[in-house]
Amino acid sequence: MGLAFFNSVIILVFVLVGSILISSMLAYVLNRFKFPGNGLVRNLFLFATLIPGIAMQVTVYKIMYNLNLINSMPGYILLLMGTDVISIYIFIQFFTNISVSLDEAAILDGCSYFGVFFKVLLPLLKPAIVTVIILKGVATYNEYYMANLYLQDKTTLQVVSTSLYTFTGPLGSQYNLICAGVLITMVPAIIVFLIFQKQVYSGLTAGSVKG
User: Fold this and answer.
1) What's the predicted TM-score (pTM) here?
2) How do residues 47-75 score in pLDDT, each as one tens digit?
3) Angle between helices 2-32 and 126-142 (to 10 degrees)
4) 199 CB contacts (<8 Å, ≥6 apart)?
């Protein structure tokens, strides 16, 4: 369980940082820049949510195999770091509520587009970032299917979700250890929630009411 927690923390950190940067930067481009195909790109992301994830697993597995990313922690992180459509639309909604005048003022002061994004807009996205961390973090922490499929070395590449299945076998299941493991996996989530509950509530409710 200790190794599983260590691997899960590493995966969570890289996936959350990567997902937030990718989703926020993509949302910034789609919201602030008007170019031919902007609406098409948005619709394609929306169309992608209609395709069941399980229907694409054969193709995804072949790609991962050809890139030698099977049974690899970086490969699994890269897979989970893929574009999250929900996160993109959350950031787009928050960018809509931020005045374009801030961008123009920063550009007049000599900021580049990267400077506008990282120095001006990204700090204002704190509520959206908290929301994305909650949604993406819970999904990543509880993810089992891809962890079991792509992290095949169960001795060194275990995560929290797959470590519980080490207590099951063809001759029976150790339910006492499974129940203890479930309680242990709940402890980090409870601690994080108790520490950051104020930010959690503000992130979930920010932008819900405009008066």
Assistant:
1) 0.82
2) 877 877 777 888 888 998 999 988 889 98
3) 140
4) 130
